[in-house]
Amino acid sequence: MILSQALHSVNRTLSAANIDDANIEAELLLCSILEISNAQLYSEPERLLSATEIKHLHNFVKRRLSHEPTAYILKRCQFYGSDFYVDRRVMVPRPETELLVEKTVEFAQRRCLLKNQFVIADIGTGSGVIAINLALALPEARIYATDISPSALQVADINRCHYREASNRVKLLQGNLLEPLSEPVNVIVANLPYIKNCELQTLSPEIINFEPMTALASGEDGLDKIRCLLSQAPGKMCSEGCLLLEVGHDQGETVSSIADSQFAQAIIELIPDLSGINRVVKITL
User: Residue 239: what pLDDT?
Assistant: First the structure.
């Protein structure tokens, strides 16, 4: 089998199974197996696949047809322009979460604080993608990355060690939300679980059958973890600090109301994503 035939075959098979973006996923699977770039995928159409490569390809396609996310199959995903290791110990980072990184960087850069005086806490860090991208974008910042799951922190540590230019400024802490923090911070950024318990069974097989439920579900209205974080925040924040929280499509107003009752003098903003959905609640003290 030559490369062009393999690409067409995988694309057709995934499309027949109603896999979204089947052409893109076919490209990802083949590029990973052959260890080539996307450009090489189309510049070498007559390349002959070995028996071993064909066997690996069939295995990858079988796993994808069982709804295993491509990120778990490849043990890799891209977030905010950087590549990260992921496996089933952590949820797959979503593109909409990049808004948290963008808004945190904007806030930090506007403050123009002196070296080593800007401290950020990424709460519920999971694979560490938010904390590490913040460290890469803000070379003068120190970042705490907390998670209640020791296994998730193992994945975060793999990614932290990969980005050596940022690794010494990202400190991983195991514990419940803000409890592990040893000092007040300038920014709290968090992508916590916000799925309602009643919505779990409506999620796609890729999510419900493979991703860790502890990273997704958060009570009857999906806000248990966010409420807990906001209740812990007093005493963990520097003056003129900021909290940035990712929320579900219909949760912005409720979270704003909870934040207003907790921080009476705060400025609270709802920030929409590219689809116009209020995705981030920004609380400036």
Answer: 87
